[in-house]
Amino acid sequence: MTSSRVGAALSPLRSGRIMGAMRGKGGNVATMPLVAPSVVLLLVWSLIPLAMTLWFSFRRYNLLNPMIHGFAGWSNYRFLFGDPALLSSLVVTVILVGAVLIITLGLGSVLAAVFETGFPGRGVARVLMISPFFVMPTVSALIWKNLLMNPVSGLFAAIARGLGLPPLDWFATVPLISVILIVAWEWLPFAFLILMTALQSLDEEVLEAARLDGAGVVALFRHIQIPHMGRAISVVAMMETIFLLGIFAEIYVTTAGGPGVATTNLTFLIYQRALLAFNVGSASAAGVLAIILANIMAAFLTNTVARRLDV
Q1: pLDDT, block means (10 residues), the chain with 311 residues
Q2: Where are the domains of the chain?
Q3: Is 149 exposed, middle or buried (0-12, 13-18, 19+ CB in 10 A)?
Q4: Cα dihedral value 233, 237, 238, 243, nearest 10
Q5: Which long-range contacts link 89-94 to residues 24+ away (Cβ below 8 Å)?
Q6: Confidence at residue 308, expressed as pLDDT on a 0 to 100 scale
Q7: Which of 46, 213, 262, 295 has the highest local Cβ count within 10 Å?
Q8: What is the pLDDT of residue 94?
């Protein structure tokens, strides 16, 4: 009993010593010992793959022929920039990201404003609106490919035949538009949820005052709700762009990058070089290019969002 009492009495002193050791010169708690393990783990987690990608981008490395090895210099990069598929993949990437951003931000803003007006069954509609975001990309692509866009048994084909129109073979005639619709359907709930949350912070008195001044629904949306959602729109655009640069599963399941290179983005081009052409050196060079472009885009979007948050 005596030892336990002594230990209980000394425990505050021990905790005080620990806290004192963790305090810096200015009296503030030094948090570096607490976050250092996580920071080190994240650095190792990211720097090792990056270093290996850089290493292989300067090497001859073919999975089918182990005799092809050695230092390649800038050959992989010269081959990459001389490949016409690179420019095509960059164009497809820009179109895909830009179109999905326009659809999700535009339609998400409108839907967020509609849901804020209130209507019967809004709770159920809100759940149905958010649910596509929780569907795996591969499953989403399979649903759209086999149940909706199939030219024989798909829902869109049945609607077209009911209207007396010929069914459209989506993935053969408009493959990139088809992929854009699938990806936009997946990411629309994310934009809608963030923008709806932003609108909920809008003071109702502001809207009521605008209505008393004779502002209609369109004027309210254009001059009050859209400016209020400005910061949220910037954040959604930044987060979506970072993820959309790596779209792969939807393309792999539906079009496999085709017809030709019509839906081959930069991510799918890296996959083709690494696991279809078995040229790890060329794929690593494309991966380095993708890393550089992603970091440039992320830095630009981060600075843009930071400027809006400072306003």
Answers
A1: 45 48 56 86 88 92 84 91 92 95 94 85 86 91 94 94 93 95 95 91 84 84 88 90 92 93 94 90 92 87 74 57
A2: 51-310
A3: buried
A4: 140
A5: 89/261, 89/264, 89/265, 89/266, 89/268, 89/269, 90/266, 92/176, 92/261, 92/262, 92/263, 92/264, 92/265, 93/245, 93/265, 93/266, 93/267
A6: 67
A7: 262
A8: 94
